[in-house]
Task: inverse folding
């Protein structure tokens, strides 16, 4: 009989569940004055104890000496509670490994002695991601980078929930940038080529957000997604902006040729539309000027010649064969 393998024991997910709380701190200057007075008093007690010992008052001498030593030790311990905190900085205070609070008070402050104090800045910071090569929605590789503006919102999570929050937000920013870029086409022309639509139809569609034309909307998506990824570390993204967006080098030339061809087609379309209107107006004016009667053949010939003159790319010297204009 074959042995039944033991059932796998599910491993619970491990997450540091911690919230920032206010740490104990008071103004440091009054405490510093009291500590200095205590150290002077301890020195005086030790001297008095030594003097009492020389006068054969052994009990009094021992008492005074012990009080001086205890007061000096207490003063030295109290000195370990001082911290100088600049604006935009905090101190995450731990007592033998236990988190007891965050001190946001600036200047010379005094907190619980014999504690560890980790500096966590809460100033607004920014960094630029590396230039990433990502396939956008239609499959074309693009090179993109972004500038991320962020700050620490919860010092306890930033200190204990992740190992290094600076490296954490850098990695998550690149991951969010890759995901958002992959869900949008580069521009309306790329979307039109991929969906067999015209570029005008794509631009009129309210649901199509492109990387090049809708930079603000893409930046808002990046802010939302990145905040969802980094809130576990007590960080907050304030703004994201694309700093670089271009086709990858291997297809940049082909895309440039496509854009140039599209520009030529657009220009030709404008020229043809304008030329048709001008020719129609010209023929109408000739017929209304009096005594001019164009039969269909001559009208077609004149239309062809006028269109050649107006739409042709170079200089033209057409021969207008209209026959006898006056009956």
Result:
């Amino acid at each position: 009989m074959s042995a039944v393998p033991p059932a796998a024991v599910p491993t619970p997910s491990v997450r540091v569940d911690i919230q920032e709380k206010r740490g104990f701190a008071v103004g440091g200057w009054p405490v510093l004055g009291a500590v200095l007075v205590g150290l002077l008093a301890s020195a005086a007690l030790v001297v008095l104890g030594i003097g009492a010992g020389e006068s054969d008052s052994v009990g009094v001498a021992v008492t005074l000496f012990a009080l001086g030593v205890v007061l000096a030790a207490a003063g030295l311990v109290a000195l370990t509670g001082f911290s100088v905190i600049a604006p935009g900085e905090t101190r995450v205070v731990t007592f033998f490994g236990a988190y007891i609070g965050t001190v946001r008070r600036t200047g010379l402050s005094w907190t619980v002695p014999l504690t560890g104090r980790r500096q966590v800045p809460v100033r607004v910071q920014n960094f630029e991601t590396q230039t990433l090569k990502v396939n956008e929605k239609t499959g074309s590789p693009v090179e993109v980078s972004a500038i991320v503006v962020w700050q620490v919102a919860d010092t306890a999570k930033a200190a204990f929930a992740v190992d290094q929050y600076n490296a954490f937000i850098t990695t998550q920013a690149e991951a969010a940038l890759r995901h958002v870029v992959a869900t949008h086409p580069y521009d309306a022309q790329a979307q039109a080529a991929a969906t067999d639509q015209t570029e005008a139809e794509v631009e009129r569609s309210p649901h199509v957000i492109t990387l090049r034309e809708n930079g603000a909307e893409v930046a808002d998506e990046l802010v939302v997604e990145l905040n969802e990824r980094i809130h576990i570390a007590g960080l907050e993204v304030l703004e994201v902006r694309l700093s670089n967006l271009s086709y990858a080098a291997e297809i940049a030339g082909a895309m440039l040729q496509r854009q140039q061809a599209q520009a030529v087609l657009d220009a030709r379309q404008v020229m043809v539309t304008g030329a048709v209107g001008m020719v129609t107006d010209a023929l109408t004016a000739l017929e209304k000027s009096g005594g001019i009667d164009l039969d269909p053949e001559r009208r077609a010939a004149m239309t062809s010649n006028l269109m050649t003159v107006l739409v042709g790319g170079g200089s033209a010297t057409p021969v207008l064969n209209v026959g006898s204009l006056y009956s």
